[in-house]
Structure formats: C-alpha cells, structure tokens
Amino acid sequence: MQEPEEKKIALELLETEQAYVNRLHLLDQVFYTELMKEAKNGKTVPEEVVKMIFSNISSIYQFHAKFFLPELQKRMEDWSCNPRIGDVIQKLAPFLKMYGEYLKNFDKAVELITVWSEKSPPFQDLIADIQKRKACANLTLQHHMLEPVQRIPRYELLLKDYIRKLPPESPDRDDAEKALEMIFMVAKHSNAAIAEMERLQNLWVVYQRLGLEDDIVDPSNELIKEGPIQKISTRNNSTSEKYLFLFNNMLLYCVPKVIQVGAEFQVHLRINVDSMKVRELNDAQFPHTFLVSGKQRTLELQAR
Question: 5-189 belongs to which homologous superfamily?
C-alpha cells in the first residue's frame, strides 16, 4: 500500500529533526565544549568570547535532543493507531521563543569568529581542526551556525505542506492549523526582536557621531532621515555646508567638525518637532529652499 502523503511529510519532519539535532550536537558538544575547554586553559581566547559566540545554543540543543525529537519519534512509531503530529508541534512552539536570543546574537557571533581568528592563531587552528572531522562534512563553523536561523522557517514550510495534504476529515486538522499559527507568531516575534536590535544599534552609531550629548541620547527615538544641507546667509548671499538629523521628536541642525576626533558633528540647534514649522520658498537665486522655524530661531536652508 502507498503511504498517505501527510505521513510522508511527517516522516520528513522527523528525518530533518534528527539531522538538526546532530548539527546542534556538533555546535554545542563539540565546537562550544572544546573551544571552552581551551579558553579555560587560557590558550586561545577569553571564556566570555566563546560564550558570546554560542549564545544559548546549549538550551536549544537540550530542548530538541531531550524533548522534541523523542516526542516526534514516539508519535511516528504509533502512527498506525494515532496519525497526528499537530499536538506535539503545539508543545514545541512556545519553546521556539528561545531562538530570539540566538538570532539577535547571530551577526555579532560571526563577527567575533572573524576577529578572533585573526587575533589568535591557536583559536583559528582549533576551529580548523574540528572542521576537518567527518561530522563537519567539509563545512565551516559559520555554516553550521546558520542552521538554527533557518530552522523555524523550515517548520513553517513543512507544516503548511502537511496541512495541505491532510484529508478534510482528518482528526489532526484543528491541532495542525493551531500549531502553524503558533509557529507563525514565534517567527514574527523573532523578526521583531531582530529589527528592534538593529534599530538600537543604528541609533547608537548616530549618537556617537553626535558626540553622545546627554540630553539627546534616548533609546526610544527614531531616526527618520539625515543628510547634508546648505545654510543660506541672507546677509552676504552665500551658502555654507551644514547637516541635518531628523528624529521622530526633534530636528538637529549640525555643523560638520573639521577635526573629527570622537564626534563627527557638533549640534548647533535643536528644534522640537511639535513646535516646528516648515515653509517652502520660491527663490530664483536659490532653488529648493525652505524655512524651518522653532521657538528660538528660523533657518533658511537649501536642499540639493
């Protein structure tokens, strides 16, 4: 007899999960454990660096190896009398939130591997040595580290496929659809965490360029636009190069520093958005000009 389509997909989920657990074992029990051992001996890199590279990979490995994979195996063995996986995946979904931390840390981890490979030849040698082993299948550490990043979208695809193949009257339909919804929410949650992390990093870079002025550094600000602008001096009909940063709550009018030690710009004026007025001008001599006025003063500016 031909296997039903939905069982084939459930088996594919089990097989990919087994391969995934092997990959996690390699990351946690081989790379992390051996690099940590060498770090403790003070031979390669600080222990903190190894911890930062692997983030919470140990928790992810333990969860999949000790809980999710065994549950899935048990379910597939009982398939003939209980053909369903939706309920098992529902138990999995809340734990996938653990991935948020790993994903947020991923870019930083890859950067640390590069930086420390250059700084510490023993560190580089140990990684190269592990990569030569059969379990690594000729792939780099960075390549193996990508696997958890790709796992949640993989669950989503397999589960969508599974639901598509289920007969309309299948007892697993409700559970499987609910599980898919839960996984979708987790994926959204992870993406939102990454986006927020990137926003804060970009904001921090801008604050450094502005010399970290106390009253400006606020993590809730959002940078909307930045760029060079010409300031028009009506007194002598000339223009000079200035720079604007527009945030959701304020406009910073800055002067580029000639000697860039530390900050790149000096803030000359701060205009609060809620009391700011902008008016376009029709000036034949200076096209694309506009007035920006705040409580203290008005600026005549020319865009490109």
Answer: Dbl homology (DH) domain (1.20.900.10)
